[in-house]
């Protein structure tokens, strides 16, 4: 007997919330990126898990693949920005980069 | 409890534990390593959920690509600053509050519904083939766009970092 | 021609403000000149109007145009009109406004900071005040009423003294609270009143004249007199009266809703204090007489004791607090509170004497308080110090100023020969007579109010004694040198006011002959209508 | 002012209006005179007053013993009830008009000398004119409201005149006290007006008194109006301003005491006494009695000349009010007239003394308080004319036969005697007799100390008589203190001024008075001679019993006098001060309430909104993570709200 779908969903929810907490807690931009990755993976897990409900179509997995692609892009550009910002402000603490504040 | 179930729970716990580790860790590098563990366990869970192709992509792209880039970034910033990458925490209360609240909410929804997985044998042999077909037929436009996005991201990332260099020089 | 006079009077300052908007801001003299010319034009227009005004003729110079007409289908028609007119209540107040605005313009001659903005605001204020007194449509009234608040806020907040922000915000909050209460009553009235002039359709009108007739209320609407609904212990009409009463009482100002006044006065520049005391306070009394009382007569009768009680409390409390004031402007401000209490007492009595006295007091206080604040300004201009105890023996150094202060103080404490005496005596006679004539007020109200006379004498004379008697001494040598007697510009402001106070005190008949028909009609209408509407509580 | 209806000929009307308005003209002219020509007013003002007095006299002679006449003038109309400004012409009002204008003229004349060199002559003469105008308004008015108008104006003028020397702090305090105490009485007066108006709808005096019948409200109304009298005429609880008012220039005191201010109250009582119910009259009588006693006792122990005179005025006013209280209006009026002349004479003489000594001091550069009788003495040689006028006035005040004061007091005494015997009337009689006794005492003491004996603080330069312009009015007034002013017969008060009285002149009462006054004179001679000069010798020599008696009497008188003075100074003044402090305390308390509670509430609201503002502003702190938090929180709330 396979563990029920619920367990996967619980895990995904947990991972998402943890990722969210990481994004909110860490005073470092790269750590925030890590949190975002965690959240993306949680949603991917959800997509794959729900795909089991409809085994005939593989839409869930397809979506998961696209998410991975987007995650890659995000990580690449995000890191580039982080480096650039770091070089400019000599910090990667997001609170201190508040020049866009109205 | 059979072996499969054990492995399943093992990877679930590993993923959860490593995620928690990321949250608690104050060292960026260790956190990145724990993310690696987490991603690999999730890949294992994908396999167990009959999504081998996603699992492979996960390992290749995430573990092999993204994380390497991240670690590279970490190294670069720590090299620039010359300080150990210790990270402070803020908004602990807000984060814990919203995390627990959101989790409670989601768990509530998940518990409320019964997700009946069809019990008949899942056709796994054709999965890879179906995915390939899907990419070329139903999802051809998103596929193309994703390709362009990747290209754009690559060029963009290169451009942003190269500005840095040119300015630095 | 004649019917457009009032609109001319009303919009001349607005047109002038518009013109001033396009003048270059560095030519500060032009703005003073434009405002002065506007005021002179207004005086001419007013004189034209006075020459054709018939004191027995009720509403005159009425002008009525459609303004907003919205067909809301089954909800009826929303109809707001441009409806203005003058009667024995508003004409004296409009005349007062025109006169005081002229004086204010002269008194603003010394303004140096952002002259353009100042005079444009002053002109807008001018229109707004006259509009408030002239409007006979509630929405139009409310528009002008709110329109007045904004220039005032900026005039205090920008050109004021040290604590001007605090004062202007306090002023704004208080008056805004009043406006909101009035707005609630306005909406309730709008829902409840039907315009009978369009038969067959439901027309929600803001016409104040229609609101006075109980027949125009839609049956079972919230403010219908026959509506049995109760909100708490009182019916909706009583609540609506209370809302309007509090809203206008804040403007008046009435104890305990008066604390904005001393602060606003202390911080406001002299001309703005003059406008505030002489004109803005009158809008409270005017609103009670024009709106709250005629529309809700039965509630007015029911609450008359409350209105009178608060009036008496204002009189006594204001006087006591004035006595404790160390700041000259504060003292005058509290004396305003005390004097405006007479307006409440007079209105509450609903006798001809009382109502005439109340309106007379509004005009008289307008003149006298303008004089008082100008004099406080004279001193402040010279030394930038208004603390009474910092002066001593000024009589020897500034004899003409002393004489002017004597005139103003004695006029304010109701010395016969000045307008305040006529007003206060009428209020006293009316308030006392009310007990036997219509049974609304107990005689003790009037008797306790006489304390105001004694206390008034006490605080003014005490201030006089501290500031003017004894050997000459002023805090600071620079201040002592700066103390020079009145100059010609100050004469030109003070003398007309003093003469006006004297004329209205010695020959009250012309003004009373304007007010009297109104007072008669007002008290009769409120009494008969109020008694005919059966109380439901 | 419209609708004049003439009851009499225009000439008379012209005279009346001239008499009334010329002082006002004097006021206006003085105000408008340029400062550099201010010497003009001291010519101009007495001249106008002279014309005014002549006009009043012409009016009096042409209307003497005619029927009362009423000029009807409507001031303004409230509703349909007109408020009239009628002028009533009777023997009383015309006589009073003459007295006021004549005395005012004399005071003006005197002032030109007394106030010469004052640097605010303009204000002084302006206010003198205004004072006279106000008083004449009271005299002529036939409407309670008009009367009240002038009544208040009198208060205002007295404020200005008492506080004429603004650099003197005490002058400011005294003038303030005078006005406020008057205002307290006036508030009562106003309540009386309200009662009358509410019950009758008219304030016309003639109209009011013509109804004849008595109503319940009249007691309250008349007592309230009497409050005004108490303030203005310095009766029992509200008299302390009168002695303090001596801070003003001396001619002003003469005017206040003789003709204008304090007389106004008595005159008002005379005018409206039919309104008074028996109960109210009893109150009036008792108040008058108390005032008379307190005033006379206080006068006995003053050292300041002007204060002695002030207290004597108070006690004489008490007598007048008492007489009205028992319903004998004519006697009170008679005393008012005689008092006007002899008190004006006394004050102006006192002014002459002060003036002469001041000038002597200025030349000698030697300064002491010239108003203190302990510093004076022996002035009869240096100031013979002043001594004579002082003596004449004093004799009239003391009620010595052949002087007007004797006759008018006699009238009151006879009136008191002829009332029904009751406890009240008996006590009034006793009070009357003792007050007249004490009057003799203090008058004697004052004159003795000032003029007799040797100079106690001799000046190197001898004081000389003031100029003729000052002596002339005083002499004139002194002559008016003789019995001839009242009647031809020096022992019968029924004469040309008081042609008829409904009580008779009792011969043995007159005899008693003569004896009584003589006794008083004797007693005072012994009391003050012995108390002041070589007391032991006389005590030891002949009059052991007499001396003991006089000592005991003196002690009793002294104690009661100091008590009265103490009551005056400590209790009544203290009450006034206390109430003033209480006012200030309450004022501070209300101020505190105002600042703390009422303002506090408003500030609280402001703080609350500010706090909310700061709280909501923290959402926009420019911190990504906080933004995320709020976004998530919003999503959570949204989820809970939609899905539950």
UniProtKB/TrEMBL annotation, chain A:
Q: Per the record, GO CC terms?
A: NADH dehydrogenase complex; plasma membrane
UniProt source species: Chryseosolibacter histidini
Arranged from A to Z, the UniProt key words for this protein are: Cell membrane, Membrane, NAD, Oxidoreductase, Quinone, Translocase, Transmembrane, Transmembrane helix, Transport
One short Pfam family name for this protein?
A: Oxidored_q2
Q: Which GO terms describe its biological process?
A: ATP synthesis coupled electron transport
Catalysed reactions, semicolon-separated: a quinone + NADH + 5 H(+)(in) = a quinol + NAD(+) + 4 H(+)(out)
Q: Which InterPro entries match?
A: NADH_UbQ_OxRdtase_chain4L/K, NUOK/Mnh_C1-like
In which family does this protein belong, per the annotation? Belongs to the complex I subunit 4L family.
Q: How does it sit in the membrane?
A: Multi-pass membrane protein
Q: Fill in the subunit field for this protein.
A: NDH-1 is composed of 14 different subunits. Subunits NuoA, H, J, K, L, M, N constitute the membrane sector of the complex.
Q: Report a single Gene Ontology molecular function.
A: NADH dehydrogenase (quinone) (non-electrogenic) activity
**Transmembrane region(s):** 62-86
Q: State the name under which the record lists this protein.
A: NADH-quinone oxidoreductase subunit K
- EC code: 7.1.1.-
Q: Which domain of life is it from?
A: Bacteria
Q: Which Gene3D superfamilies match?
A: 1.10.287.3510
Q: Give its localization.
A: Cell membrane; Membrane
TrEMBL record, chain B:
Q: Where are the transmembrane segments?
A: 6-24, 31-53, 59-78, 90-110, 145-164
Which leading EC class covers this enzyme? translocase
Q: Known EC number(s)?
A: 7.1.1.-
Gene3D superfamilies named in the record: NADH-ubiquinone/plastoquinone oxidoreductase chain 6, subunit NuoJ (1.20.120.1200)
Mode of membrane association: Multi-pass membrane protein
Among InterPro entries, the record links this protein to: NADH_UbQ/plastoQ_OxRdtase_su6, Nuo/plastoQ_OxRdtase_6_NuoJ
- Keyword tags: Cell membrane, Membrane, NAD, Oxidoreductase, Quinone, Transmembrane, Transmembrane helix
Catalysis: reaction(s): a quinone + NADH + 5 H(+)(in) = a quinol + NAD(+) + 4 H(+)(out)
**What GO molecular function annotation could you give as one example from this UniProt entry?**
oxidoreductase activity
A GO cellular component annotated for this chain's UniProt record is: plasma membrane
Domain of life from the UniProt record = Bacteria
Q: Where in the cell is it found?
A: Cell membrane
Tell me, what's a Pfam family for it?
Answer: Oxidored_q3
Please explain the role this protein plays, according to its UniProt record.
Answer: NDH-1 shuttles electrons from NADH, via FMN and iron-sulfur (Fe-S) centers, to quinones in the respiratory chain. Couples the redox reaction to proton translocation (for every two electrons transferred, four hydrogen ions are translocated across the cytoplasmic membrane), and thus conserves the redox energy in a proton gradient.
Recorded family membership: Belongs to the complex I subunit 6 family.
The name on file for this protein is: NADH-quinone oxidoreductase subunit J
What is the originating organism of this protein?
Answer: Chryseosolibacter histidini
UniProtKB/TrEMBL annotation, chain C:
Q: Which parts of the sequence belong to the NADH:quinone oxidoreductase/Mrp antiporter transmembrane domain?
A: 135-445
Name a Pfam family for this protein. Proton_antipo_M
This protein's membrane topology, according to the annotation, is: Multi-pass membrane protein
UniProt keyword annotations, A-Z: Membrane, Transmembrane, Transmembrane helix
Q: Name one GO biological process term.
A: ATP synthesis coupled electron transport
Q: Name the Gene Ontology molecular function terms of this record.
A: NADH dehydrogenase (ubiquinone) activity; NADH dehydrogenase activity; ubiquinone binding
Superkingdom is: Bacteria
TM region positions: 6-24, 31-53, 89-111, 118-136, 142-159, 171-193, 238-260, 272-293, 299-320, 332-352, 358-380, 400-432, 444-462, 494-515
Compartments annotated for it: namely: Endomembrane system; Membrane
Q: Name one GO cellular component term.
A: membrane
Task: Name the protein family.
Answer: Belongs to the complex I subunit 4 family.
The family database entries (PANTHER family) matched by this protein are listed as: NADH-UBIQUINONE OXIDOREDUCTASE CHAIN 4
Descriptive protein name: NADH-quinone oxidoreductase subunit M
UniProtKB/TrEMBL annotation, chain D:
Q: What class of enzyme is it?
A: oxidoreductase
Query: Which GO-annotated molecular functions does the record name?
Result: NADH dehydrogenase (ubiquinone) activity; NADH dehydrogenase activity
Q: Which residues form a coiled coil?
A: none
Q: Where is the NADH-Ubiquinone oxidoreductase (complex I) chain 5 N-terminal domain?
A: 75-125
Q: For this UniProt entry, which segments traverse the membrane? A: 12-32, 39-60, 87-109, 121-139, 145-166, 178-200, 220-242, 254-273, 279-301, 308-334, 340-357, 383-403, 423-448, 468-486, 506-528, 624-643
Q: How does it sit in the membrane?
A: Multi-pass membrane protein
Principal location class: membrane
Record GO biological process:
ATP synthesis coupled electron transport; electron transport coupled proton transport
Q: Indicate the segments forming the NADH:quinone oxidoreductase/Mrp antiporter transmembrane domain, all copies.
A: 141-427
Q: Where in the cell is it found?
A: Endomembrane system; Membrane
Cite the EC number.
Answer: 1.6.5.-
Q: Which InterPro entries match?
A: NADHpl_OxRdtase_5_subgr, ND/Mrp_TM, NU5C-like, Proton_antipo_N
Q: Which GO terms describe its cellular component?
A: endomembrane system; membrane
Q: What is this protein called?
A: NADH-quinone oxidoreductase subunit L
The organism of origin for this protein: Chryseosolibacter histidini
